[in-house]
Design a protein that fits this description.
Distance between the termini: 15 Å
Largest sheet: 12 strands, mixed
CATH topology of the largest domain: Aminopeptidase
Structural class: alpha+beta
CATH superfamily of the largest domain: Gcn5-related N-acetyltransferase (GNAT)
Protein name: BioF2-like acetyltransferase domain-containing protein
CATH architecture of the largest domain: 3-Layer(aba) Sandwich
Number of helices: 13
Length: about 400
């Protein structure tokens, strides 16, 4: 029988650090956003939020961890305390830690129906329903017997990299290629264009693209934030970069014109996939911001091919995500959001029903997309309660 322990302080969670890392290493996806280092970084920057981490055990052995947090949000029915994933757009996807996601979700949701509630609603966004979750969250939510809604959360830009750079460009439509070349020409007129990159533990470079130090690129990033009037963003960017560098997954890129930084990106690498979570662009005279962003993405992707990347995913919160989607994407994926509220909490259950009625109908299953880095696994078409020891 499953047992669930509820952890509500980072001090107590520290005792599970080794267990978290072991489960993270055995999970379907090893993303920075689900690492213990990100959990620490998140609460460092949001001390007003309360951790509520569920540790699931079976026969005395920990089989999964469900990281949650309580935060207050504004809703159409007034302020409400919700139980949600600790991400806030600093990644594309989220979910349970470990290889037993179905069992972890089932046990965790069942526990939440009977435990003391200092929150009114469960809200789980960032679900990769069609590639990894495969309906597990939906099933666990519906089994609670609460008011439940399933919605499309966000569009995630996917850029698949295969073959040579020439092959990649040849696959572009003529009108898109014209826009890309026009942007390149505009920036070339503005001055000498250079591209710098830092990636943890990576020394690959070429005659066109130069490796730079982490400190130099962070200085460029901070300068760009100051010029863009976004000084308040720096602390979280710095902490994210420090944690990602500690795990050896940090990726920083910067575009310069005549030695001046004009645009930069911040991301992490997971296997052969790059996940870009933030960007900053400073307007230039006689150059549209979209042109600067397009050239930045072109340099970034060409360099990524040289480094052996197979795909790049762009978070919607990334400032240059629109240009990445319109000019460089090969597919648009969707993340999903599941909201649950007890019927006894009238305001929360009404809010869930409101969103359920307002949401557009969504397909039960989209076309399957192959993983960029396949992992050995038993094929499955839906939620499983098989427990991996």
């Amino acid at each position: 029988m499953f047992q669930v322990a509820e952890i509500t302080t980072l001090e107590e969670l520290q005792t599970y650090r080794i267990t978290w890392e072991e489960l993270w290493g055995r999970g379907r996806e090893k993303r920075f956003s689900t690492s213990y280092h990100w959990m620490e970084t998140y609460f460092k920057n949001h001390p007003e939020r309360e951790p509520k981490v569920l540790v699931v055990t079976l026969a005395g052995k920990t089989i999964g961890i469900l990281p949650l947090c309580v935060k207050q949000v504004a809703t159409k029915l007034g302020p409400l305390r919700i139980l949600t994933y600790p991400l806030d757009g600093w990644g594309c996807w989220y979910g349970p830690i470990g290889p037993n996601s179905a069992a972890t979700l089932t046990a965790g949701m069942r526990y939440l129906t009977t435990s003391h509630r200092d929150w009114g609603l469960i809200d789980l966004p960032y679900i990769d329903r069609d590639r990894h979750d495969l309906g597990r969250t939906r099933t666990a939510a519906r089994n609670m017997g609460w008011s439940t809604s399933e919605r499309v959360w966000e569009d995630v830009t996917l850029i698949e990299l295969a073959g040579s750079w020439s092959d990649f460009l040849e696959a572009k439509r003529n009108d898109v290629m014209d826009e890309i070349l026009a942007s390149e020409a505009l920036l070339a007129k503005a001055g000498q264009v250079d591209f710098l990159r830092y990636r943890s533990g990576d020394t690959v470079g070429s005659e066109q693209f130069t490796n730079a130090s982490c400190d130099d690129l962070l200085r460029h990033y901070r300068k760009l934030l100051e010029q863009a009037g976004r000084n308040a963003d720096w602390q979280e960017v710095e902490d994210f970069a420090a944690a990602a560098e500690h795990r050896n997954v940090l990726d920083l890129c910067c575009l310069l014109i005549d030695g001046r930084p004009v645009a930069a990106t911040l991301g992490t690498k997971s296997g052969n996939t790059l996940e870009t979570v933030r960007s900053v662009v400073v307007p230039q005279a006689d150059v549209q911001t979209s042109d600067t962003e397009s050239v930045l993405w072109g340099r970034l992707l060409e360099d990524s091919l040289l480094r052996g990347d197979l795909a790049c995913e762009v978070c919607p919160e990334c400032e240059s995500a629109v240009v990445a989607a319109s000019r460089w994407s090969t597919a648009i994926m969707q993340s999903f959001r599941y909201s649950m509220a007890p019927w006894s909490h009238l305001r929360s259950s009404l809010l869930v029903k409101y969103h359920a009625l307002k949401s557009k109908p969504i397909p039960r299953r989209q076309q399957p997309r192959p993983l960029t880095e396949p992992v050995p696994a038993v094929a499955t078409s839906g939620p499983q309660l098989r427990v991996f020891g």
